[in-house]
């Protein structure tokens, strides 16, 4: 973020937001699995957040960690032992910092912090030597990523994602444009795994299995991006590829406005879709939003609310649905690969990203 003072102020305001005290205490003090959390959503009406941490949450987390270390006089060595030591989960550290982030479960904060402070984090591009080490480690140990990690010198999540997305079937994997036969095959596979089983066509997809059924010639990421960027909206539009319209832009701005968030990193883009406006994937909506935001001069130093005011004014009138107004050349949209994703999340079953 280019305006840290602004984010700090938003983080302070967000920390004041209240959720039911019993829910907040439960989230901050109990080590609950995803299955248990889902059960409590159904039985107790528990509300909690999933997905990537927002810029505001990241600031709240940094402030909580700094406060804990200052109050407890924790040295760097002791701090790393709290996070990575054998008795890490016994420390009150985790409950203390989780309490500062509304609606985040303890286990989510635990994994997020461990990824962020891991000594092997952010090591840059993989080398051919590392790939060779990874292949050999998996051959020796199987996909036990915590054991593979020290052999390779990379985080376990990085080893997992590198292997699944770039190593598996590398010798037969195709690159470049997709053929019509490939597109038809991918569409058939996804619809068989979702629509024909009463599942969501965008969210309930195991991309590793999709890649396997493609014969390994296209990887998990390739299949996911091809589907979300191109094929999904065509299938939903009766086989015709839809075009982004001024009306779509109008709807997007007003849906984002209705979210009542303090920063757009808090938005779960999947929640913007509804039965009458569902052609566009979450990635597509995020890219379109970034394109509109970046069209505003000086947006880098503006708050989300300031940007929202400008876009709300620009999109105040419902566009002509027949498109009889002056045509404009389509603005270039970023590739979904340029959208930052959480490298620590296993997207084999993407259900909230």
From TrEMBL:
Keywords: DNA-binding, Nucleus. The keyword DNA-binding applies. It is found in: Nucleus. GO terms for molecular function: DNA-binding transcription factor activity; transcription cis-regulatory region binding. Its main location: nucleus. It holds the Pfam family Myb_DNA-binding. Signal peptide: none annotated. SUPFAM superfamilies: Homeodomain-like. The keyword Iron does not apply. GO terms for cellular component: nucleus. This is Uncharacterized protein. It comes from Pleurotus eryngii (Boletus of the steppes). CDD domains: SANT. Residues 118-171 form the HTH myb-type domain. SMART domains: SANT. Residues 118-167, 176-231 form the Myb-like domain. PROSITE patterns: HTH_MYB (PS51294), MYB_LIKE (PS50090). It comes from the Eukaryota.
């Amino acid at each position: 973020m280019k305006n840290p003072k602004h984010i700090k102020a938003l983080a302070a305001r967000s920390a004041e937001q209240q959720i039911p005290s019993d829910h907040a205490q439960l989230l901050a003090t109990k080590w609950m699995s995803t299955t248990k959390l889902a059960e409590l959503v159904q039985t107790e009406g528990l509300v909690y957040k999933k997905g990537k941490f927002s810029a505001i949450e990241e600031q709240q987390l940094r402030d909580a960690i700094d406060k804990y270390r200052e109050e407890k006089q924790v040295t760097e060595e002791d701090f790393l032992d709290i996070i990575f030591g054998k008795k890490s989960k016994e420390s009150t550290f985790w409950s203390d910092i989780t309490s500062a982030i509304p609606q985040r479960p303890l286990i989510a904060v635990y994994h997020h912090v461990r990824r962020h402070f891991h000594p092997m984090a952010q090591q840059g591009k993989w080398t051919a030597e590392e790939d060779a080490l990874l292949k050999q480690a998996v051959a020796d140990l199987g996909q036990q990523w915590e054991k593979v990690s020290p052999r390779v010198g990379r985080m376990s999540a990085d080893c997992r994602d590198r292997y699944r997305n770039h190593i598996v079937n590398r010798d037969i994997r195709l690159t470049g444009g997709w053929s019509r036969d490939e597109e038809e095959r991918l569409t058939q596979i996804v619809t068989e795994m979702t629509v024909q089983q009463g599942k969501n066509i965008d969210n309930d997809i195991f991309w590793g299995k999709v890649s396997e059924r493609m014969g390994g010639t296209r990887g998990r990421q390739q299949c996911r991006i091809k589907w979300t960027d191109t094929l999904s909206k065509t299938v939903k539009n009766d086989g015709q590829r839809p075009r982004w319209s001024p009306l779509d832009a109008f709807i997007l701005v007003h849906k984002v406005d209705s979210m009542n968030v303090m920063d757009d990193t808090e938005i779960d883009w999947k929640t913007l879709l509804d039965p009458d406006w569902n052609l566009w994937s979450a990635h597509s909506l995020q890219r379109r939003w970034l394109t509109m935001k970046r069209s505003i001069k000086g947006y880098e130093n503006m708050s989300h609310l300031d940007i929202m005011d400008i876009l709300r004014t620009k999109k105040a009138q419902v566009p002509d649905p027949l498109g009889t107004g002056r045509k404009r050349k389509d603005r270039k949209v970023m590739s979904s690969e340029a959208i930052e994703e959480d490298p620590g999340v296993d997207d084999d079953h993407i259900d909230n990203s």
